[in-house]
Write a structure and sequence with these properties.
Blueprint (H helix, E strand, L loop, with lengths): L4 H38 L6 H9 L4 E10 L2 H5 L6 E20 L4 E12 L11 E5 L1 H9 L5 H13 L5 E5 H6 L4 H9 L19 E9 L11 E4 L11 H4 L18 E6 L4 E13 L2 E7 L26 E2 L9 E4 L8 H5 L8 H4 L2 E5 L4 E15 L14 E13 L2 H58 L2 H6 L10
Helix pairs in contact: 1-11
Family: Belongs to the CD36 family.
GO molecular function, one term: scavenger receptor activity
Organism: Carassius auratus (Goldfish)
């Protein structure tokens, strides 16, 4: 039995209407479902496998690349000439990070200690840890600046101590020893004479205190009661603020611990985080939209005001005493040693800094820091944090080791901590938090499109059926009253015969 076009049109109208209705409902309900799915996956919850594993064990490749500034002319620098440096590296180390002592609290926070280990990756490095470089001797030149305002007899005594331990103004040692520590009789002497003066009780090295260490106890919000607070720091080592700086604003502990951020970010959002290594909170700002390994991302970068001095950017007045813009004085949290942080090669710093040292060439591609983040989840896809460690050196009367060194902030090293999501973790992340929400979003348009197509088809069938029926009625009338017979054989009216 054949189905009539009228019946088909009714069926198409009903199905099309249902599809449009379902698609329209998805327009309003779909985003709620997607957001709910994101919230369930982003909350710090042991029952949320994907995000909890990413947060706890950081199962992604993470590397630290270190570049040394080898001093080409140490003797000339000691005589007051401009230092000339040559970048050596990178020396690349894979990082192993994990969280331990994880404790959940009733106020929807969780405390943990994050540990880190470094392993040298010779295949990714330019050279190896046995390479010899020359850098300023922090124990001598740093301590000399710290002793600048001490009585002259004491400064001379310090100079005699340096001589007795054969400590000069510059060090020429293998990269591995400068990184992770070398034996120093002077360090042993100072630790016995003034316990607690130095950051290490064993070998002295630029990263000696980093390997096999932790970043302190963080307590962050789990997001269970408010997803907008997830990963935000509640306290660090039990502190709500630090006391390194001279203003309440600069001492605030703001943002996250620097690994993940709350979801649903916009281009107007910022990315604040607290860095124990920099002893302060920092904030990144939106730069542009992009794609990282098939996942849409927002790129956030450091604002130009990040390391500005108080004169150029008044909110940074609390980080002073300041020198030129582009330098962060971290002496207050580094045992009062004259140490400064900056972008590599003094990128975005006062040009005066470049005039005092030869061999630097800053550019954004190589020396700017950035984080590519998936805005819907707050999970970083690609990270590159680049910072430089600098030392203030100068001639100090009474300490002959300082010679006639001109006052200059000289770079020691710069390092890049980088990581990206890849492999099975990337595939799972893309499927659960990108592809499925995208499919759900597209479904609403597909159903609405199919529904409208069905309704349009029903209308076409209905109109077509009407036209066919109209023609059939006309044909039947023609068959009953043919026009030719009516006019020729059976006239309805005849004229009377006269």
């Amino acid at each position: 039995m054949a189905v009539s076009k009228s019946t088909l049109s009714i069926v198409f109208i009903v199905l099309g209407g249902l599809a449009v209705l379902f698609g329209t409902v998805l327009v309003f309900v779909g985003p709620i479902i997607i957001d709910d799915q994101i919230v369930k996956n982003i909350e710090i919850n042991p029952n949320s496998g994907l995000s909890y594993t990413m947060w706890k064990d950081i199962p992604v490749p993470f590397f630290m690349s270190v570049y040394f500034f080898h001093i080409v002319n140490p003797n000339e620098t000691l005589n007051g000439e401009k230092p000339m440096v040559e970048q050596r590296g990178p020396y690349v180390y894979s990082e192993n990070r994990w969280k331990d002592n994880i404790t959940f609290h009733d106020n929807h926070t969780v405390s943990y200690m994050e540990y880190r280990q470094y392993f040298f990756e010779e295949s990714m490095s330019v050279g190896n840890e046995s390479d010899v470089v020359t850098i300023p001797n922090m124990l001598v030149l740093g301590a000399s600046v710290m002793m600048e305002n001490m009585p002259l007899p004491l400064r001379k005594l310090v100079s005699s101590t340096f001589k007795s331990f054969n400590e000069g103004p510059f060090l020429t040692k293998p990269v591995g020893e400068l990184m992770w520590g070398y034996d120093s009789k002077l360090v042993d002497f100072l630790n016995n004479l003034l316990p607690g003066m130095l950051p290490t009780s064993g070998k002295f090295g630029l990263f000696a205190e980093f390997n096999n260490s932790n970043t302190g106890q963080f307590t962050v919000f789990t997001g269970r009661d408010d997803i907008r607070k997830v990963h935000m720091v509640d306290s660090w080592n039990g502190l709500k603020s630090v006391d390194y700086w001279s203003s309440e604003q600069c001492n605030m502990i703001n943002g996250t611990a620097g690994q993940m951020w709350p979801p649903f970010m916009t281009k107007e959002s910022t990315m604040p985080f607290y860095s124990p290594d920099a002893c302060r909170s920092m904030e990144l700002v939106y730069q542009r939209t992009g794609v990282s390994r098939g996942i849409p991302v927002y790129r956030f970068v450091a604002p130009k005001t990040l390391f500005s001095n108080g004169s150029d950017y008044s909110p940074n007045e609390g980080f002073c005493p300041c020198r030129q813009s582009g330098l962060l004085n971290v002496s207050t949290c580094r045992y009062n040693s004259p140490v400064f942080m900056s972008h590599p090669h003094f990128f975005e710093a006062d040009p005066v800094l470049l005039d005092t040292v030869d061999g630097l060439s800053p550019n954004e591609d190589e020396h700017g820091l950035f984080i590519d983040i998936h805005p819907e989840t707050g999970v970083p896809m690609n990270v590159s944090i680049r910072l430089q460690l600098n030392l203030l050196i100068k001639s100090v009367p009474g300490i002959t080791e300082t010679g006639d060194i001109a006052e200059v902030v000289i770079p020691l090293i710069w390092f890049e901590e980088s990581g990206y999501i890849d492999g099975p973790v990337l595939n799972t992340f893309r499927t659960n938090l990108v592809v499925l929400p995208m499919v759900l979003e597209y479904m609403q348009y597909i159903f609405i499109g199919l529904g409208l197509a069905g309704i349009l088809g029903a209308v076409v069938l209905y109109v077509s059926d009407k036209q066919v029926k109209s023609r059939m009625v006309g044909q039947r009338c023609t068959d009953v009253y043919p026009s030719s017979s009516v006019s020729e054989k059976t006239p309805l009216l005849q004229s009377p015969t006269r």
